[in-house]
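We emphasize that the prediction below concerns an isolated chain of 215 residues; any contacts that depend on oligomerization or on bound cofactors are therefore not represented. The input was used exactly as deposited, without trimming of termini.
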Amino acid sequence: VPTSLATLATAAPAHAAGKLVAFWSMDTTTVMVDRARSNDGTPRNVTLVPGAVGKGYHFNGVNSIVLVPSSASLNPGRHDFRFTVSLRLNTVPGVGDYDPIRKGAASKPGGQYKLELFSDSTRTRAQAQCAFRGTSRYEQLRTGPNVADGYWHKITCAKTGTSIRLIVDGVPYTKRARVGSVSNAEPLVLGAKYVDGVSTNRYKGDMDEVRIQVG
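Result of the prediction step, given as a token string:
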């Protein structure tokens, strides 16, 4: 796997998971119930499919989205944190990228965290990218295997005080970085970039088992 000089691919164990502050198992489309706290989401135009565990959501790439109101538990500040999702897709992003998960935007204060999917130069493969914007700077890490192969892939993005990390199916990739504090008033969004009522970078594929852990 090609990596930049700042990126270290390693088989070392992942960091301790921390406190679970949100867990969406995506078993119903009326409300996306948070089984850890009370961060329930509102699904729009998603359908149920067989998931990585039980059932999951299918996002159609046109108008599917889930909105979770902002809360203190979804804003990690300077704490270490990670978010994990299982994804299954066949379609490689075209112009732009897919945004399966994000909270915040570059045009809004408070920073942001997000998982994106980008196609490679051949338009036949898709790689995951973790990105964090905090009070110190913006950092991103894109690497790993093709995830647009029709199989479920478990992807984690993590931030510590000195690094960011992308984990794909248990294999971690780490970049030394100091992001700073991340805390904003924007909703947590699944399936698209959503700013001021407008959605772009719409995800086309399946999603299941989303977790956020802090500390």
